[in-house]
Every structure is written in C-alpha cells, then in structure tokens.
Amino acid sequence: MAGVNVSLLLMLSVLVGVREVSLAQFSHxxxxxxxxxxxxxxxxxxxxAEAVNYTGSNGFSSPQRPNCSRFxxxxxxxxxxxxxxxxxxxxxPMLSSLNITLGYRIYDTCSDxxxxxxxxxxxxxxxxxxxxxxxxxxxVQPIMAVIGASSSEISIAIARELNxxxxxxxxxxxxxxxxxxxxxxxxxxxxxxxxxxxxxxxxQLLKDNKWTWVGIIITDGDYGRSAMESFVKHTExxxxxxxxxxxxxxxxxxxxKLSTHINKTMDIIEKNTKVNVVVSFAKSSQMKLLFxxxxxxxxxxxxxxxxxxxxxxxxxxxxxxxxxxIGNILGFTFKSGNVTAFYQYLKDLKFESEAMNxxxxxxxxxxxxxxxxxxxxxxxxxxxxxxxxxxxxxAVSAIANAVAELCVQRQCKKPTAIQPWELFIHLRNITxxxxxxxxxxxxxxxxxxxxxxxxxxxxxSEEHDIIAQYYPSNTSFTFTRKNLSDIENVxxxxxxxxxxxxxKKTAEGQHTCCYECLVCAENQYSNHTDADACSSCVTDSxxxxxxxxxxxxxxxxxxxxxxxFAIVLLTLAALGLLLLFSVSALFFWQRNTLxxxxxxxPLCHLILFSLLGSFISVIFxxxxxxxxxxxxRQVIFGLSFTLCVSCILVKSLKILLAFQMNLDxxxxxxxIYKPYVIVCICMxxxxxxxxxxxxxxxxxxxxxxxxxxxxxECKEGSSVMFGLMLAYIALLAxxxxxxxxxxxxxxxxxxxxxxxxxxxxxxxxxWVIFIPVHVTTSGKYVPAVEVVVIxxxxxxxLSCHFLPKCYIIIFKKEYNTKDAFLNSVYEYARKxxxxxxxxxxxxxxxKTENPVYVISNPSLVPEEKxxxxxxxxxxP
Length: 876
Hints:
Blueprint: H1 6-17, E1 31-33, E2 37-43, E3 46-49, E4 55-56, E5 59-60, E6 68-71, H2 73-91, H3 93-96, E7 102-108, H4 113-124, E8 143-147, H5 152-163, E9 169-171, E10 188-190, H6 195-208, E11 213-219, H7 222-237, E12 241-248, H8 255-271, E13 277-281, H9 284-296, E14 303-307, H10 323-326, E15 327-334, H11 340-347, H12 351-357, H13 359-365, H14 373-382, H15 386-409, H16 420-429, E16 431-434, E17 437-440, E18 451-455, E19 465-471, E20 476-479, H17 485-488, E21 502-505, E22 516-519, E23 524-525, E24 535-536, E25 542-543, E26 552-553, E27 555-557, H18 564-589, H19 594-598, H20 602-617, H21 627-658, H22 663-672, H23 675-696, E28 700-705, E29 709-715, H24 719-742, H25 753-776, H26 782-811, H27 818-840, H28 851-855
Parallel strand pairs: 2-7, 2-8, 8-9, 9-10, 11-12, 11-13, 13-14, 14-15, 27-29
Antiparallel strand pairs: 1-7, 3-6, 4-5, 15-18, 16-17, 18-19, 19-20, 21-22, 23-24, 25-26, 28-29
Helix pairs in contact: 2-15, 4-5, 6-7, 8-9, 12-13, 15-16, 18-20, 18-26, 20-21, 20-26, 21-23, 21-24, 23-24, 24-25, 25-26
C-alpha cells in the first residue's frame, strides 16, 4: 500500500497477535455468527443514546454504557442486509471452494459517537475466557474488517480507532469529504461517493433551475459541517447565495434542546419568505419534526426541499404530514442494484431462530407496532431502501473477494493466518464483480457510481420517482422524466431577474443575489438575464439605445436614390433634360428666324449644352459617394455653369454694344467683342481653378461617425478652392447682371436684357441663400441643398432665356418676322425721341448722336433721314 511504512505494518501485526486480554471486559448485545474470518458491523439499531449521569451522592460513578432508545427499523434492515450478504458469500463457489467461511459480529451504534466507541473496544479486543462462546482453549479470532458506520460523524470516530490497528473499514453510507483524506484515514473505504460530488450535484441542480436564493439545514457534527462547507464553496463559485444556515443538534435524546432548535429553524424559514428552496443534510427524524412544526404554524408553501442521502429515502417522514402542503422533495440517493434476493430473504426469515443469535431481532419483535411475524416482514420490507442495501452488499462482496485472494495463497483456518493490514492491501487493489459489473476502489478508497435524483410522491409505501441521474464523470444530469413543471415553476430568488437591457447593482454589504435592476446606458447593452454589468458597444460601428439587449450595426447613411427627396430632385432634373432637348430641337429647327438670332444664335445651343452638363452633374450628388463622384460632381457643375454664364456674358455684352449711344465707348466695345475668345478666356480661368483644386486638395469621400449611423459624405478638400470656384461664377453672373441691367428698357418683344437680368438675379439669390444653408446643414441631405440650388439656377436660365422665345416661336409667329422686329424697334426709337424732345426741347435731327440715329432701320424712316446703322454679328 502506497504511503504505508512496512516496518510499521509489521509492528502492528505483531501487536494484533500478542494483544493482552487483561483489560476490563465489556459484554455488548448484538448479532454474531462464527466463521474463519470475522467481520465487524456497525449499524444504527437505535436513533438515540440517553445521557449518562455520572454524578451521585458519593461523587462520580464508574464508566458505563449509555442506554439506547427509539428503535430504528431502518438500521435493523441494514444489519440484516449484511447478514444476508455474508450468508450469500459463504454459499458462493468463491469461498466454498476454499472451505472457508465469513463470520460477523454486529454492534449497535445508537446513532451516538460515544456508544460507537464502546463498541469499537469490544470489537477490537479478543474474547476472554469468560466471554468466549466456545472453550477457553480455543484461539481468539481477531476482527479482520469492519462494515459501517452509517453516519459520517460516527465513521470518523471509529476510523481513528481502527487506524491504530490498520483494520480496514468500509462504510456503506458515510459521505463526509474529510474521510477521503488518506493521510488521516488511511484504512477507510466506502461504497458510496463522498459529499464533494453530492454538493456539486446539488449546486448544479440549483443552477440549472436558476434557484439562487436558498437555505441550508444540517445536523451539527463533522458530517454536517463538512457538507455545509462544501456546499457553500460550490454555491459561491456559481453565483448562488445561501440566505440562511440552520444547525440542528446531533443528539436526539435531549428533546427539549432539539425542540428549541427546530423552533428557531422554523422562525428563520418563516422570516425568509423568498427562500423557496431548502437544502438539508439533517437527520430524517429531525426533518420529520420540522415538517410537522411548519404545518402547525401554517408556514408551508410550494417549496422545494433538496434532501441529501442522509434522509432522501426516509419514507416514514411524511407519515403524519400532508405531502402536498410541504411542497416538492427532491432526494439524492445512491445508485442501487437488484435486491430481489434480499426481499426474498426477509420473507423467509425465521424470527424465533434469528432472535437466538440476534438480540436486535428479539427487541424488534417486542415493538408495539410489530405484532406477529407477518406484520414484522411487512415492516422490514417497508423500511428497505435498495440503494443502502446494495451498498452494504457491495462492501461484503469486496471483503469476500479480497479474502478469497488471500486464502488461495495460504491456509486461512488458523485464527492468525492473515492480518488485517494484509486484507486492507488486497481491498485497496481488488476489482470485484457484482451483477455483471466490475467495481474497484479509487485512490481515495471510494466507489463513485453517481446519484439518482428522485421526486417524492404522495404515497409513502411506493417507490420514489427517479427523475434524473447524475454522473460525476461529466458532472451532468440525464433526466428520465420530461414533465417537471411543478418544480420548474418554483422561483427562489432574492430579487427578480434583471431582464436583458438591465444590469444588477448590489448594495454594499448585501448578498450578491440581492440587487436592484438598472437600465444600461446608451451605447451599452446586456444580452442575458441577471447580467452583472453592461457591455459597451464598439461605437465606431455599433450603437444602442438605453435599456438595449444588443448593439445594432450603424447603417451607412447618404443621399439615397430611393429617398423621396432624391426622387423628386432627379425627376426635376430629368424634366429639365427633356426640356433642354425639346428647346434645342426647336431652336435648331428655327435657327434662321429673327427670335433665335436675337436670342444669340449659335450661342443658344452652347448655353443649352452647358445646361445639359449642369443637369447631369445632379446625378453625382445622389447615391453612395466615392472619391470619383465627389470630384466629378463639383467639377462638372463648375465648368458647365461657367460655360453657361460665359455665353450669357457675351450676349449681354452684345446688347450693350448694339444699343450703346456713346460712339467712343461703342468703338471700344466693338474691338473687344470677340464672343468665342471671351468664352474661352472665361472657361480657361475656371479650368485652371479646378485643376489646381484637384491637384492640391481634391474632394474626397469621408465617413462621419454619428450616434446611430455612419454618414458617407463628400468633403470638398479645400473649402477655399470650392469657394473660389463658386465666387468666380458669381463674378461672371454679376457682370452679366450689370450689363443686362443697362439694356433693360430695350424693345419689349425682343428684349434679351431684362431676361438676362432676371436669370442672373435668380442665380445670385439662390447661391447667396445656399452659402449659409450649406454651412449650417449637416447630415445626408447636404448634397440635396446644392442640387436644389443647381436646379433653381438651371430652371431660372431656361425660364428667362428660352421659354419666352419658345412661346413666340410656337404661339406668336407674327412676332417672329423682320417687319415686326423693325416696327418694334421703330416704335421704341420714336418713343425714346419724344421723351428726349420733351426733356430738352431739341429737334430730332439736330443731333447726330441720338437714339434714332443709332437704332433706326433705313426701311422704316424717310430716305432723307436715313443714316447707316452699325452691323453687329447675329443681329437682324
């Protein structure tokens, strides 16, 4: 055996062989049977030991055993399971082929540590002559192994005594985690898992059902405190809070003390109204008193009671209790096997013969509620718990297999043929078969088969309903029953769950399970219930409102094609293009008429072409921007509208030249009047501005991160260059406006000056308004502002320059003749002359530099009054 000193083993074996028997002998009632190898057994045949009063009239009395009270049929049933298992092992070929048998000596622990230690002394002391069941010359048979005890508290005390002699001990029910510590309990083994697995399974059950506010009840002692420590450790790691811890006294003998603690526990349960799940490691008799007390106070409700293996199969708890008023009881029980043979053994018991070698059976038959043999069998079967019986049988099987291995090698008929420590070594390494499955003890001396989770039903006599199985290997439950609504609907929380979009805020000094729910701030979120904190959104690409359960991706925003505003603007641009083509076709068809020539002739088509570029530039303001579209839209508009205004400038200059009355100025204007040269010069300056702009600080696509979106927009690159481009167009428009304004009083029917004036005025006003609006506007509709101004400018020029001419061409054809034109000019000249005559008193022919002289047509005035009129290109 690892960790055991060989010399120590040899010394202890010698001590066992030469034990002195001169100590005081103590007889103890129990059950016994002879055999070649003797096994000890410790079972709780009684539930309590009465306190011993060592003081009397003459001082302290001598040591004496306490008297046991409250017969415990379940403990007797466990002892019978050992007896039956020993008999079955003796009949098996494994031992019968070696001609050896197992014997036993079974003691009552009375559920008390002190009483158990008295029994250990009897068990480990060889029989004296007066105690020997045979003759005094017969060799004394030492105990080779011990089965028991049930309670961890008692097993711990017994183990410390048995460690001194290295006598192996196998418990069938003690689950305290401390017993797995081989440095303190090297010879202790068990056929059940330790409480570390049970508490972990319990906490997993609480977690799966979201029960975070629970209470725990234990029986005072090593077992209870160890279980509570393990349970609390696991709850803390899973975020589950223990609302209260109730500790009941270990002894059941002092009823007054027990009643006081039961009342305190009920007060705690009554106070914690939100605790609807209680985990209990207490004794079954204590839980029975607690349930009765709760019902008497009318405290019971729809609670869930999670029962440890300590009382999970104690059906008699609900004997005098209304199950439906207690709530639901979920019990963790050990894995069990086939115990049919044991049931048959109970049915075939010969009580009279059994009572001869079993004082426990004799006492059982004397119990008031036992009665005849039939009732006795029924009561025993009723107190049979398959998991406990199976654990006892496994312990006996392990010892029988280890004995068989040893006795194959040596003669075991001699009392000292084998030593306890030798049997212990074989037990730790044994692999034995039971019901077709192979079992062995792990490094901690445990056999861990997991747990069954049962739900108690309302019928005490029926088997509990197994709803799930827990496997320690993968720490998970496998549910065997689907409908668990009566359990799943139970809520056990200190505070209501915080919904997604909220987070928990715990007040200082409170349990972490008691909190208030606060909403997540903007750009934060929580996507599950009971979040401890809100997570932050990545604000570069995500966003959220307050009280959000998720982050939303920031959508890209721009002046979309399908937006209503864009559709309206694009429709207007399309209508403008349609109108342009119609006007262009009409003017081309009527290119030789006086109206078209008066409107500018070929320059009209150049203006219409420039407006075509201006309308097309609108398209680049709509849709997702790119570096190319950002550059194209401004350059196309700037160049096209510069061309338009340049042509209009030529027209305004022509009008000024045609009707200028100052001959010197007129001669100067005639010299500089080169239409296409002027247009090229004006366009060249704008081309230079745009080229410099695109070279140094070109427009580009930019992303502006907004609270809920990402705005895709065009940055102008250089605001100075953008302003310079617009300012240049505005300067040309202002010059046009000035020239045209001077000729605003020319003949009405063919007067281009006033239409140029109105067109440039509309343009200047639109762009003056555009500048502050553009500067103060933000968002995806900024491009729409410029589009509106462009459309206003285009439609203003179309309306003022071309539509009146189209009206005359289509509807007033009589005005589109040479005679009508000359007559209009003559009328204008006559009125102008009359106005001058009235102001100056001078005859029309006294001055050569008068309006009539400048503008009169030779065909409409007397021959003697005719003078030559200067010829201007495109003028009729």
